[in-house]
Amino acid sequence: MMIAAACSIRARSSRVFHVLHHRALIADPGLLRLRNAARSALATLATAVLASGWALRHHQSLTVAALGVLFAMIAPLFLRDARWSNWMVSLGWLYASTCACFVASAAVAAQPAMRAAGLLFVVFAGMLYQRSGPRAIGCAMLALVAFYLGLYLHPQPAAVVEMLAVSACAPAVVTFVSRVLIPVKPRGASSMWPLTTRAVARGMLRTVARFNRSVRRGRCVLRALWRREEAVLVALIALAHRGRALAWLPAIPATLAAALAMLIGSGLSEERWMWAVISTFVVFLGTTSREHTISRVMQRLAGTLAGALVSALVVTAFRHAPGVLAAAMVLSVFGWAYYIFHAYARGVFFITVLVGLVYGSLGFEIVPLARLRVEEVVAGCLISVAVAVLMMPSAAARRVQPGVAAGQ
What we know:
Layout lengths: L1 H26 L4 H26 L8 H9 L9 H25 L3 H17 L5 H20 L3 H11 L1 H13 L15 H31 L1 H15 L4 H21 L5 H11 L5 H28 L4 H18 L4 H18 L4 H26 L3 H13 L1
């Protein structure tokens, strides 16, 4: 009887597992979102442990780990290349953009005019190249977050070097998590096996060969530009042709909205005004009409309000339980990475909870901080709506346009 009961329970649990797995595949084909979220959460946790451990061991502030942790959290979502060489190129671009913008922001943090100009340039460039694929969007996101981190911390040159050195572990952790522990599945592959040492070596050789080819091509272009004036005209024509594919339409309104958010947000808080600017950036990112922008604004407001409330409750209840707060942070990273691309309001909810947990664990008063975050986000969203209504086309106009063009 006991054996039969055990077998029956096992059979029922197996059926439940298959049903849940089938439903998960329907909601998330190939479990891609689940895998991306797991990569981001695991890479963030590992980087935080390594960087924070180094900081504590050398009696340094935990803020030295911030740059590496931010990179490990965001980068895995935009590393989608199956080939090892392409993946390493994307990783290099993401990390270079992060470090360059962090250094630049730290250098201009004490100069208001340069700080504003640099921030608006980052917003404009990020919006302009958003159609160039996941690599470009990832660079834009990391550049903006790194610029904000440099402005907020305004570290001294020695601290900048230290933070860059500590962040060097983040690309290694992301590589290990994304290519070995939870590898990218190649197209047509029936199974998912970790990369072998031979495959890694082969990929690195391909990357080096690709870099050498790029250098040789660059030399040929420079020689052509030096020898023939016609090559300059050809290069300018090619540049103009590529410029037509850039996202000029959302880039200009987003930059204007960021400038207005900078002015109004700094009036609300001299330290947290970047929350208003970031709100304008993410609201316009990927939108093509005023209706789409307004929808994004409503989702961001809903997610921010709910996230601020939950973060205040969690921090207040578990302020003296760092283990619970750390577990909630990892869960928030996972939820943000899982939902941010297909359920924006839920993604905003989790990132708002994460921000509140981080500041609460550092000793900040969570209730005034949550209230200020809501105010900054509301300011950025209202500015975005106003700019979108004035400068963005309507969805109906964009649907009519192809028909008009065909009739002509």
